[in-house]
Amino acid sequence: DLCVVGPTGSGKSRTVAEFARVLGYRVEPMALFKDMTARDLLQQRETSTRGDTRWRHSPLVTAVLEGSLCVLDGLENLDRGTLCLLQRLVHERELDLFDGTRIVPRAAYEQLLAEGAAVDGLGGSGSAGQQRVLPAHPAFRLVALATPPPSASAAGGGGGGGGKAQTRTAWLTSEACSMFQFHALGGISPADELRLLRAVPGAERAPPGSLEALLGLAQRVRASRDDDSLRSLATSLSTRQLLRITRHLAAYPENAAQGALHQLVHKATLSRFLPSTTADALERLLADANLGPAPADAGAAAAALPPLTVEETHVSIAGMRTARAPRDPAHDALVPRALFFDNARHSVVMRDMLRDYLLGEHLLLVGNQGVAKNKLADRFLELLRLPREYIQLHRDT
């Protein structure tokens, strides 16, 4: 079993995905979080269509039984007690599940069968007073992904990630070291990173020198070891984020002359929510990198845009025209129909949402309570004629 350690944005997930593809493995990904318990790691309760509660295997247990490659993303987030639960699985290929099932190595399972023990195979159900025993698939492998401990992460890497690690306790204990074969994945070189950006389809349409300036800005932020405020921005300018910005420039080159690159960097770093000292330092770095001045007054620019026009098959939002989804009677009731008063500022926000949506990105609306985030999302879906599935998140979700 393996553990790949590298800074955020260094390509750990992509490297493991390619590793699994080459070896012909099916991947069972599992994201780990800070408050994850042993039960979350192995099984969860769910309700059947008949209203009965039952245990559902986690991706980890599914991989153990089916011989897949389980990728545990974020090993540094696990509590030490929860991490110790993996020791028996890693060393002995044994697990005791919360529904009473016991998983043993294939050799032990076959020995039990040879001795005439009453065990249920895969898919069976244990009878009263009998423990269900299942064999671990011999092809099962575990790959964990982690960021370096704070002391090592402070030394920096091409992918960033030092700021978040500063708040994390060291997870690389002697128990963790005995569980995996460790492989370090450092950040890629600036030359290789620039080659990746230039390989984005349409990247040649970006303004001359803009990709070099963008990469230079990211390198300066990542190298700011003595400035905590700038080091906290390193994850916001990882290789993944730089590729997103490049794809945006390639798809909408007409916006580059309007300070779009400057605006995209601010959006990637969430500069509106940064402390004033950090935001000022970022602005100085942008000026030094010649990434263009901040756009003119947003209100005046929005007022000059074409009005919203809605047709049966197409919609134009702040001058950006796109096709609407065809009518689907099966999902028509899920398409929002919001009472919405269109205005220039909201049209600009929806236009930016539409640009990212057409690029295949996932969207996140951030704002104070009462600024019409839900209304804006409903209106956006209504214009594109897309069904909505609504989930209210809370602390225990």
Protein architecture, described:
β11 and β12 (314-317) form a beta hairpin. It is built from 17 helices and 13 strands. With 397 residues, it is an alpha/beta fold. 39% of the residues lie in helices and 13% in strands. The strands form 4 sheets. Strands 2-5-9-1-10 form a 5-stranded parallel sheet. Mean pLDDT is 82; it is low at 122-129 and 152-168. The protein has helices at 12-23, 38-42, 59-66, 80-92, 106-114, 150-153, 162-166, 174-177, 190-198, 210-222, 228-231, 239-251, 260-269, 276-288, 298-303, 344-358, 373-384; strands spanning 2-5, 27-31, 43-47, 53-57, 69-73, 95-96, 102-104, 133-135, 141-146, 181-184, 309-310, 314-317, 320-323. The longest helix is centred in the C-terminal third of the chain and has 15 residues, at 344-358.
Extract low-pLDDT stretches.
122-129, 152-168
Terminal residue distance: 31 Å
Major β-sheet strand ordering: 2-5-9-1-10
| Overall mean confidence score, pLDDT | 82
Structural class by helix and strand composition: alpha/beta
- Per DSSP E runs of 2 or more residues, the count of β-strands stands at 13
The count of helical stretches stands at 17
Outline of the structure:
The protein has 397 residues and is of the alpha/beta class. The protein has 17 helices and 13 strands.
